[in-house]
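Pasting two entries for a bug report.
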Amino acid sequence: MTFETGNHAEQPHVESIDDPKRVLIMLDVQINMLADPPAGVPSSSTVGGNVAAILAHARTAQPPPRIVHVRNCGDPGEPDEHGAPGWALVHTPRPGEFVVDKRKNNAFAGTNLGALVPPTAEIVMVGMQSDFCIRATCSAALARGNEVLLVHGAHATYDRVEVLDHGTITPASVVEEEIEGELEEAGVVLLEMKDLPGMFTDS
């Protein structure tokens, strides 16, 4: 069975499930984020393909990581409003995988994600948006004591409008690199797609 958690579904009895050594967090990998630009992130095609490859590899890994799909629930009228087409997950969860609904940037806040992710687990983080939910959730995981791995090319955001600089635009790719630098300084380990073969193993 697939376990759904959060505001819209029953809490799973995770205490009966062995604590995983690794967890793949699929953060806000939703239709609205990976739609064609400009609705989706500028790198939606590349990032979507990389995230799909990581998920496929995780599903065949032995032993497999715990896979958690985190789904943002936007406010009424937003593209990811609960039940809207853009709210749907890109990848249908398989039996044994978890779905966590959230309303804040930090996916641990107001959800039971912390019950699914032991502080001893190594987290592989992918998804959106780099400068909001990825930053906040990686930071919260580090504070819990988790080792956090962020995959370059498997997280993304939108171009940033610099309000204090006459509305100039900072490209999304630059913002993503800024966040990687900030998180690496804080203790996040950066991986490349070339690291995929060993991403969920001890080797």
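Entry 2 (this is the one that rendered wrong in the viewer):
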Amino acid sequence: MSRMHIPAGQWRYARACMVCSIVMTQAHFRAEGCPNCHFLDLKGSPEAIETCTSSQFEGTIAVFKPQSSWVAKWQRVQDLAPGTYAVKVNGTLPEDVRQAMEDEGRPLIPRDGTATEIE
């Protein structure tokens, strides 16, 4: 199954990663983890999937060639894997995940619409 396609009857199981905003089904996150955020260890971890992804998101965009897409640049996903991305993801990452990302020097781009300009 391609990361870029969620069958029509499966959208109720769709979740968006709160770090990169890629949208996949819960089963896909469990089977493969997040293609962009390996450090979250989502593969095979229902608990991590529940805390680091959200079923509450708004709008989606399909990105086939992220590096040449102005929409991907606008959404700040131009350096990520091709796939379906949420325009806005509602939810908050756990503080321990946020702190681990900061300690490792990983930038956290808010996907909830609070960041409006590329720094």
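Dev reply: Rendering is fixed now. As a check, the viewer should reflect this: The longest helix spans residues 95-103.
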